[in-house]
Design a protein that fits this description.
Chain lengths: 401, 401
């Protein structure tokens, strides 16, 4: 079958590791597959280039940044192709442009518009291993662009979708997606399969195996995504559409996000437009609001609670300070954590939420905010209880079994 | 006027030096000029990448090498453009492809076929400083190529020719072209002007300011070339066509080449085809023969003397050993030096050669071979006398005056 593999910066961080990647690619090829490989820059290279640019300017032109930043992936692609040929395999390195990756002109964070796969297809048909420099493309009029954070993953997923590869394997330095962060709960188990939607919830909530952009694109293009460890031969986690997952677990994992802060607007007038006014101002300042909770008011007054990234709390305070006096009774709390229970199976099972609340109550953990979706229950608690909450929930849903 | 400037690896070897280059470019711009800048990779970068490739293969695919090696110049171009913009100037970095440089497909040593200057012209007309990544281009069908040694100089000269720039300034770490090597003769003087043909003779004979390819291209495209020092404001040396040089000096410089070896084929049959046979075999092995001297024979026998680069002497011996017995009487001498007197003015002056021979005779230096062209007299001598020969000739032709 046709497999797209992507190796991240750590996996190609040294010449020895590139040799190791070459070996893996060869094994995949020898198993009878056709292979397209997407590579990142050697770890540290991109940061070095960014530092160079910042030596000259705090706000370097994004157009020039893309010529600068796209160089690291080209180096890795060329080296891997050379290594593969030395072992007797047909291989060729391609830049983003040569791989046919056409983007919009949002320099440093371009979106892939389309991929002209004809040249890659020709090479693959010719039994050649194609090595693509990740993270980059060109605009319709020929300017070099880069795709922003997680750009190489995105390159791999987009190519897999466009060329209709059977599998897209993303190699990192972890084994896959876990039921929760193993540093918090050593009994955490690696998941064999997870749906796109579950992965989206798990990723945004802190399980940083894959950027959401890549998972969203995989979902849109129906790409079977596997996250694997480039330093061992473990099976990894398949991220696929829900229909492909036979036995749907009620709960797949527990995610923790400690980088949120809570904002409580107390005793505002309970009338239309109040919430809209707050969140429009925050949006204008590009502040990402995550959870929003508003309770039914009484006496014509209500409370609005929401969370923002902790790093944006100071800017949030400035925005809130500029609002009219009616919103001036505001409390802020940076010492919170958001614990989430994620699972496609909870759609068809009742009692998942109540078990979560029971578990918190037994441990005497106060729940400050609650927000639920079809496949997720999120609770905001005092951050000092976050590890305890994760461990007890992990046990309560028997995720270690 | 429109000026193309080229800065080599040493001139952009650190971030501080790139800042220094930005300052120079700005001064040129502020003098009322339009500027296109061609840059090399930061010194050491290209060698580092070559070492990386050789870690995997002694004979890496040249096509991949070009994707690898073209990355260094892109980094410098982006950084310089960022530095210029930070100082308030309009600037844009271009890759070789974006600069419209189309080459043949001789990877790692491509020749420039043509330059589509339309995009650069538009930017220049728009008062923008254009910063081009040197040393690279693409083939007609879109593969990345590099131009080989001296490739960035070549990029600058070719752009200057194609866009009809008034001047092409090549910045290195020396002040220009000297009457002879200042390390041998401290009284050596920098030349203000030198013709293309003189420069070709001086370069090939050891004055390594410019690669011959660049001088040849400048001559062909009629580009006024200036070599200057990026670390001071000295005037440099203008390399231009002979007609532009008003006062033609009889002798412009003394060049020394110690990296030659002499091969003497003694007592071969003096009949047609003998010399041709030797030099065809050497050419088949890609051995560069420099001087060839054959004297009028007697008794049906003659001697053929020639020189090859010292580094190719061992391969030469192998070729000579395979020739038929009639050529077997061969002597080799690696301890020779070639001293050359170069000057366009000697065309119209007699006595230049005899002064050279007189000078050698006075110092008791035996001349082993002599070869002359319209603008050059070359003498092969014992290498132990080479510095003495250069100094006495320099004085005899009053080059220190």
């Amino acid at each position: 079958m046709l497999i797209v593999q992507k190796y991240g910066g750590t996996s190609v961080g040294t010449l020895e590791r590139i040799a190791n990647v070459a070996q893996r690619v060869i094994e995949t090829k020898n198993d009878g597959n056709k292979v397209i490989v997407v590579v990142s820059a050697m770890s540290g290279e991109t940061n070095k280039l960014v530092d160079f640019a910042h030596h000259f300017s705090k706000t370097p032109a994004t157009r020039d940044m893309d010529i600068l930043l796209s160089s690291g992936e080209r180096v890795t692609a060329a080296l891997l192709s050379i290594a593969l040929q030395e072992k007797g395999y047909k291989a060729v390195a391609l830049t983003g442009r040569q791989a046919g990756i056409i983007t919009d002109n949002s320099f440093t964070k371009a979106r892939i518009d389309r991929i002209d796969t004809s040249y890659m297809q020709k090479l693959v048909d010719d039994d050649c291993i194609v090595v693509v420099a990740g993270f980059q493309g060109i605009t319709e009029d020929g300017s070099v662009t880069t795709l922003g954070r997680g750009g190489s993953d995105l390159t791999a997923v987009a190519i897999a979708g466009a060329i209709e590869a059977e599998l897209c394997e993303i190699f990192t330095d972890v084994d896959g997606v876990y039921t929760t962060d193993p540093r918090i709960e050593p009994k955490a188990k690696k998941l064999d399969m997870v749906s796109y939607d579950e992965m989206l919830e798990l990723a945004s909530l802190g399980a940083k195996v894959l950027q959401n952009r890549s998972v969203e694109l995989a979902k849109k293009l129906n790409v079977n995504l596997v996250t694997r460890n480039s330093f061992n031969n473990n099976q990894g986690t398949l991220i696929t559409k829900e229909e492909n997952i036979m036995e749907k677990p009620i709960v797949s994992g527990i995610a923790l996000d400690k980088n949120q802060a809570r904002v409580s607007v107390i005793n505002v007038d309970d009338k239309p437009g109040i919430a809209a006014n707050i969140f429009r101002k925050l949006a204008e300042e590009n502040i990402n609001v995550d959870m929003i909770v508003q309770t039914v008011g009484h006496d014509g007054k209500t409370d609005i609670d929401f969370t923002v990234p902790e790093s944006e709390l100071e800017r949030t305070k400035i925005v809130m300070g500029k609002l009219s006096d009616s919103y001036k009774n505001v409390e802020y709390d940076a010492s919170i954590a958001k614990v989430s229970i994620v699972g496609v199976g909870m759609k068809s099972h009742s009692g998942v939420a109540s078990k979560a609340f029971d578990t918190m109550a037994k441990e005497n953990i106060n729940i400050v905010m609650i927000s639920t979706s079809e496949i997720k229950i999120s609770m905001v608690i005092d951050s000092k209880y976050s590890e305890l909450a994760v461990r007890t929930l992990h046990e309560a849903y028997e995720l270690d079994k």
